[in-house]
Backbone:
């Protein structure tokens, strides 16, 4: 927030108002904390699992997974056949794309497993979160349960992607310093 002027953000303006207080005195550093606690207690829960509702939602969702998978495969193919560089950043980018592709395939299979396991309750509005523990234990439900650990694929993908972006930024900064040093 150091690079954004305080006047550009409405939140920062309101925070300045609360810090000054109603009487014009500068309030202590933690005087805004009760307001944030109130907002936290007043908010409703946000679940990580969402229902898609009518039939168009799941169809569009699965189409998006297929499109993402095709795009990731194409990007991996281009980076493998015509690599721009062989540095650490490009290898990290390839690994992140691979983990994102595995995550996408995992999601496709989990959606398919959920459709095969619970065809009678798919559109009834019932939640699929607790079904592994309440439903019958089959091999298919075991795969479904293991497939729900998609964060084990997504977190490394994000880590490799962040590492690649950091490496690209360092390379650009090094090139800028080198080009500005030659001109002076």
Residues:
């Amino acid at each position: 927030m150091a690079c954004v002027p305080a006047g550009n953000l409405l939140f920062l303006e309101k925070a300045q108002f609360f810090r000054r207080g109603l009487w014009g005195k500068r309030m202590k550093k933690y005087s805004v904390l009760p307001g944030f606690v109130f907002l936290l207690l007043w908010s409703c829960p946000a679940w990580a699992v969402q229902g898609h509702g009518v039939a168009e939602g799941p169809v569009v969702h699965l189409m998006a997974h297929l499109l993402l998978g095709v795009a990731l495969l194409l990007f991996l193919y281009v980076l493998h056949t015509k690599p721009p560089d062989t540095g650490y950043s490009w290898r990290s980018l390839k690994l992140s794309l691979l983990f994102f592709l595995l995550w996408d395939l995992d999601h496709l299979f989990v959606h398919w497993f959920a459709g095969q396991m619970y065809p009678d309750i798919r559109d009834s509005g019932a939640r699929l979160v607790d079904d592994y523990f309440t439903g019958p234990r089959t091999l298919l439900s075991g795969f479904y349960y293991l497939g729900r650990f998609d964060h084990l694929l997504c977190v490394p993908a994000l880590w490799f992607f962040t590492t690649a972006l950091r490496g690209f930024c360092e390379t650009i900064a090094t090139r800028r310093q080198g080009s500005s040093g030659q001109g002076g």
About this structure: Residues 7-37 form one domain.
